[in-house]
From TrEMBL:
Pfam families: Pyr_redox_3 (PF13738). Its cofactor is FAD. Belongs to the FAD-binding monooxygenase family. The lineage of its organism: Bacteria, Pseudomonadati, Pseudomonadota, Alphaproteobacteria, Sphingomonadales. This is NAD(P)/FAD-dependent oxidoreductase. Gene3D superfamilies: FAD/NAD(P)-binding domain. Keywords: FAD, Flavoprotein, Monooxygenase, NADP, Oxidoreductase. It comes from the Bacteria. Signal peptide: none annotated. It is an enzyme of class 1 (oxidoreductase). It comes from Alterisphingorhabdus coralli. GO terms for molecular function: monooxygenase activity. The keyword Oxidoreductase applies. The keyword Mitochondrion does not apply.
Length: 500
């Protein structure tokens, strides 16, 4: 393997990597590729997270791939079901032979003279090198090695067990015990009802309330359509419907936040069976300023109404031997504390990058069409949507990469790069303008730059990006195709693209 040069190196064997591999086999037959995965099995997020009740926070008709229909009854699926889906795709498309498990990428170095990426990877047997002509980074957007775990005074005094959801111990026994879950995001909202099934009581401790989206776990229309037509037809119809509904709802939340807030609160009231307490359920921000928390079948509100769970809104003063002392003076007794305090973002898998011997920091680069970087050759990356399913981005970026690879083959080009000679000429704006989530704000210093206009943008608009990546010409005066050693020049005249 060390001496082999492949056409495409795919970093990661989760949703992003698997999606790229299937598109590559379908649209670029004959291209060689290798999938580099630091864990010992495929699945990425769905292999790593093992906390109780882990599930999708998007419907599986959009979190699923466009090429493989989701056929199970529940559209809001649990982690094991999603992992089974990924294994099925892997076997169906014979991807395991391309996967290299236990390979942690330490560095990625580009040579314009050779028109090659060289990856230095660490394995149990030491370090080695892998070489490829194009690099696709499907490593996700958070740090696999550590979550966000803020410092709490008195943490060492607590006599019980403290657990972070990213590193859930398999032998944790919380049956009959008092559990406090710190946090109010998707992870906390998933944990509370699931732990409440066996715990003595579960308290969700939040600093600020969250907007909740209550919806059925099963999609009745999708299940009906599958009964009367082929799975792929039914899947395509529901996928298009859900994409449209997500887009409409998000834009309505931005344009008419008060109306959307009333709708969301009405559904919470129905699920609770009582009037929601304003302090507990009214966030200090508008819907979709942060990602909505999905509550399938209202399970968390059922646990609350039945007395098995509760929500406390307060700030932590310190941990004590028997629980948590709050700034209000109240004390929460706990046997187990779960710090569902969020993720820590990581850019491009924390890999050390260089281009022609010069270290490359992505916070110095502009996004190009939301999937490449200014002046970084032969590389694409996935950063999914904050307001929609991650896989929607995977499908369109993989399609776009295949368009580029076919164009390179047709034109005999070795190198493709979004050329930006004068970065100062690009007006900048905040990368995730309008999103106030803590995990985004904490990562501002490592994130790439955002231009005010395309093509130097990462948008949160799937329908817009779908048109840009799938339909707009590759030749835009920025994307440059050339051979190794040649001077960078944009393509003078558009060429017909290879059949896709």
């Amino acid at each position: 393997m060390a001496e082999q040069i492949v056409d495409v190196l795919i970093a990661g064997a989760g949703i992003s990597g698997i999606g790229m591999a299937v598109h590559l086999k379908q649209q670029c037959p004959g291209r060689s590729f290798a999938m580099i995965e630091q864990r010992d099995d495929l699945g990425g997020t769905w292999n790593l997270f093992q906390y109780p009740g882990i599930r999708s926070d998007s419907d599986m008709h959009t979190l699923g791939f466009e090429f493989e229909p989701w056929t199970e009854q529940k559209a809001i699926a649990d982690g094991p079901s999603i992992l089974n889906y990924l294994h099925r795709i892997t076997d169906k498309h014979d991807l395991r032979q391309h996967m290299r498990f236990g390979h942690k990428i330490l560095s990625a170095n580009w040579s314009s003279e050779e028109a090659l990426w060289t990856l230095t990877v660490e394995t149990k047997g030491g370090t080695s090198e892998l070489k490829g002509r194009f690099l696709y980074m499907g490593t996700g957007y958070y740090d696999y090695d550590q979550g966000y775990d803020p410092v709490f005074e008195g943490r060492e005094d607590f006599a019980g067990q403290i657990v972070h959801p990213q590193f859930w111990p398999k032998d944790l026994d919380y049956s009959g015990k008092k559990v406090v879950v710190i946090g109010s995001g998707a992870t906390a909202v998933t944990l509370v009802p699931n732990m409440a099934d066996t715990a003595g009581h579960v308290t969700m401790l939040q600093r600020t309330p969250t907007w909740y989206a209550v919806r059925p776990a099963k999609d009745a229309i999708a299940n009906f359509l599958r009964a009367i037509m082929p799975d792929q037809w039914a899947y395509n119809i529901i996928r298009k419907r859900n994409v449209w509904l997500q887009d409409w709802f998000f834009k309505r939340a931005k344009n008419k936040p008060d109306s959307v807030a009333k709708t969301l609160m009405k559904n919470v009231k129905k699920a609770l069976g009582s009037e929601p307490d304003e302090k507990t359920y009214t966030p200090p921000y508008n819907p979709w300023d942060q990602r909505l928390c999905l509550v399938p079948d209202g399970d968390m509100f059922t646990a609350i109404s039945e007395g098995r769970a509760s929500i406390v809104t307060d700030h932590i003063k310190r941990f004590t031997k028997t629980g948590i002392e709050l700034k209000s003076g109240e004390h929460l007794d706990a046997d187990v504390i779960v710090t569902a305090t969020g993720l820590k973002l990581a850019m491009a898998g924390k890999v050390a990058f260089s281009v022609d011997g010069e270290a490359t920091q992505f916070n110095d680069r502009f996004y190009y069409k939301g999937c490449m970087f200014s002046n970084v050759p032969n590389m694409a990356i996935i950063f999914g949507y904050l307001n929609a399913s991650w896989t929607l981005k995977v499908d369109i970026v993989a399609n776009y990469v295949c368009r580029i690879l076919n164009r390179m083959q047709q034109s005999g080009s070795d190198i493709v790069v979004p050329q930006l000679d004068d970065p100062a000429s690009v007006p900048e704006e905040e990368l995730f303008d309008g999103f106030s989530s803590g995990y985004v704000q904490r990562a501002n210093d490592i994130l790439p730059k955002q231009g005010a206009e395309m093509p130097w943008r990462l948008t949160q608009d799937y329908l817009f990006e779908r048109n840009v990546l799938l339909n707009e010409p590759l030749d835009d005066g920025v994307l440059t195709f050339r051979n190794a050693g040649a001077v960078a020049q944009p393509q003078a005249e558009p060429m017909a693209e290879a059949a896709e």
